[in-house]
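Hello support,

Our group uses your service weekly, and this is the first time we've seen a run hang past the timeout. The protein is NAD(P)/FAD-dependent oxidoreductase. I'm not sure whether the cause is the sequence or the server load. Input pasted verbatim:
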Amino acid sequence: MDRIARIGVQPHRVVIVGGGFGGLFAAQALRRSNVAITLVDRAQHHLFQPLLYQVATGILSEGQIAAPLRDVLKRHRNVECLLAEVVDIDVAARKVVALRPGGERITLPYDDLIVAAGVRQSYFGHDEFAQWAPGLKTIADALTIRRKVFGAFEFAESATDPDEQRRWLTFAVVGAGPTGVELAGQIRELATRTLHAEFRHIRPEDARVLMFDGCSAPLTSFGPKLSAKAAAVLRDLGVEMHFGSIVTGVDAEGLDVRDQAGTTVRHEAGTVLWAAGVEAPPLAEMLAKAAGAVQDRAGRIEVRPDLTIPGHPEIAIVGDMMSLHKLPGVAEVAMQSGLYAGRRIRHRIGDGKSLAPFRYYDLGSAAYLARGNAVVSAGPLRFAGFAGWLGWLFIHIAFLTGFRNRVGAVLTWAAAFTRDARRERAFTTQQIERLHDVYDAPRGRDRPTNAPGQSQP
Ligand SMILES: Cc1cc2nc3c(=O)[nH]c(=O)nc-3n(C[C@H](O)[C@H](O)[C@H](O)COP(=O)(O)OP(=O)(O)OC[C@H]3O[C@@H](n4cnc5c(N)ncnc54)[C@H](O)[C@@H]3O)c2cc1C
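Update from on-call engineer: The timeout came from a worker crash unrelated to the input. Re-ran successfully.
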């Protein structure tokens, strides 16, 4: 019997793994239902990932894009938030196993389970690149990139060796999708518009930004017209694009890249950033094995049209971690699938009726290119330039979580737009030490000693 008739006896127990867009929208769909929801996440915040690159490049603060889950869900009386990392799912006993901070193992029994744990950065089998080339998925990643980027200008300023100075002023971005394009454009913009008057021994505007991707153009998912526009804007910004390129090595001083002709070229770069691909986390493999589910090439779990795992109507997978009809890993898919999974439970415990299969409504996507310039693709409509930027602005204000964050972001963007201001650039002395350690340790060299005021060749 699929219908669950426990109402009045004991609330139906729903465990949601992940408080990203998928998990949050599932909880919202169940707001008025007689269910007891435990939303378990290893982070205490809901993160608006599409704006991570603005934290990484000093425009927004982390608090403006990460809202505490407890705060977001405080009026949802049937939701309990739990800070813990899910490490196992006992499918037969219907229990989620999680580690609380400190390592204590706890189990969470469920009647229905919604898994919305997202994806992680993929280095295509070269996880060793990660120590030199951080990806951009979490607040911690954004803060690492921020201190690497702004730290690079500081190291260039104090370097005595011109080669070293050039290396610090060279930034490599791997990946020409939205995140790669946004990072590359922002680094050129901050170098030319924000930092240009602040240094005495270097010209920040001389900073080189190299972009590498195996495909033939940036933003290919936006179609040829917008892709060409994006390429033109990036060229005008000064981004050096290398397409048909496969990165074969990354280390503290740069990267090795194989071009279309099969020749491997070395590029010296003090900062390498990775925005090239994603894969499902180990939790997906563990769950797929336990439930007998199939994973796609990126490790995402294949689901039925009602988003459940075959043979397990009590387990739904939503958002980036689900594989269905080749839907893209975007926020809108996560929101709509999360809402659907919540509604489906509502129907089951309510009148027992099943919902029509999940249908995705593509509301479009946007990517920021430069100040006042973005591309938006929505159904048959394509916008670029200032119109695209207005579309980008509307979408991001509409979906940023929390009214205060929306107002704060708009004010910050206004300052960034009119005065090229980037206020979020501070990092601590310990963080500078760590940057030096990463850079120096493999080569055992001394730290740069050039004192402020010393002239450079
Ligand atoms: C840099 C970047 C830019 C992006 N830009 C855009 C954009 O412009 N437009 C767009 O539509 N989409 C964009 N996306 C994609 C969009 O953010 C994702 O599609 C969306 O966040 C997916 O939602 P989700 O709920 O599936 O996963 P996530 O939002 O990733 O949430 C997963 C949650 O699960 C938690 N979690 C993971 N594993 C565990 C575990 N084992 N135990 C407990 N908790 C766990 C995580 O802490 C996280 O809170 C971007 C993504 C990134 C990284």
